[in-house]
Amino acid sequence: MTDSSAGPAQDPDAQPVHTLDSVVAALVAGEGDLSDDQFRVLSDLGSGDADRFHDALAGLDPPARFALLNALVERERAGRLLDFSAIYRTALRDDDPGVRALVVAGLATCEDAGVIPVLLDAARSDADETVRAEACIALGPFALRAELGRLRPAAGAAVVDGLRNLAEDASEDPAVRAAAVAGLGAVAEPWVQDLIYDAYEAADPAMRVGALQAMGRTADDYWLPTLINAMDSADSDERYSAARGAGEIASEDAVIPLAALLADDALDVVEAAAAALGEIGGPTAVEQLEEYGSHPDPAVRAAIEAGLQAAAFTDDPLGLATMGGPFAPPLGGPQPAPASPADG
Known about the structure:
By secondary structure, the chain is an all-alpha fold. The protein folds into 3 domains: 20-110; 133-218, no CATH class; 223-315, Leucine-rich Repeat Variant, CATH 1.25.10.10. 61% of the residues lie in helices and 0% in strands. The chain is built from 19 helices and no strands. It has helices spanning 20-28, 36-41, 47-57, 62-77, 85-91, 97-107, 116-125, 129-147, 153-168, 174-183, 190-200, 205-218, 224-230, 236-249, 255-260, 267-280, 283-290, 298-315, 320-323. Helix 9 (153-168) packs antiparallel against helix 10 (174-183), helix 12 (205-218) packs parallel to helix 14 (236-249) and helix 14 (236-249) runs parallel beside helix 16.
């Protein structure tokens, strides 16, 4: 006879049900990496719960806090439909500038305009220049949204004015000013062009890189000669930014100069050039990429393959070539028109 007072039998294979309290307890106990279910518990927290989580994080040493928050950022960027922005906001109170810079970078993926005041405050007031620069970078997408009319005018004006003030502040750290210049590249105002000119003519390398980034974000081929010229720079950061900028402008005039960068000594420059060629697409870009398809360095081959895949999408975004039929674009570039009966 069984004892009915013992309650229902427990399934030994059943997964535990996680709550915020259990996740916090696991962190305090130092139980290591969180599971997928535990990460989901941390998504979309209210401000009170985010404060509780922040208090639990305070009991960890800085490297452990950084590792956990970095895992949140990576999960969110992987497109797992998670939102840790409430945790990032509370983590801006962290004493460690590396942690603050990390969570500001995490907020860069947040589309909620409610983070704009938080980012502006960090850009203006954080004691660490890396955090201030990261905040400017995170504000860049909001400047683009303002330019496209996808942000309330008051919020858009706050972003643009905030970035402009930082970019023009001669007493500010060059890296912060450069990030602000880059963030303003998408803003189609005459003073932005002057700002880019001045930054590119500055002696500080960071300012020149910020200017090159801004040139690409204008999507204006007016800047293409300057970008192509910068591809010959002795500074690999300038070559990298020039390649990326040319990809954003996506002019076929940049294909041959970009192809020269596929032989660059710096891998990140090669990756940027291959990605830019993929963005531009077309037979010539594909031909240039294919010349490096058998490169002995597997990292270079991976960059080339990514570029070729991007070019395939650029040239045929609907994938009609793989479907065949009358609507499929011709393979191998444009084909000659069929001969008319009179030609026979």
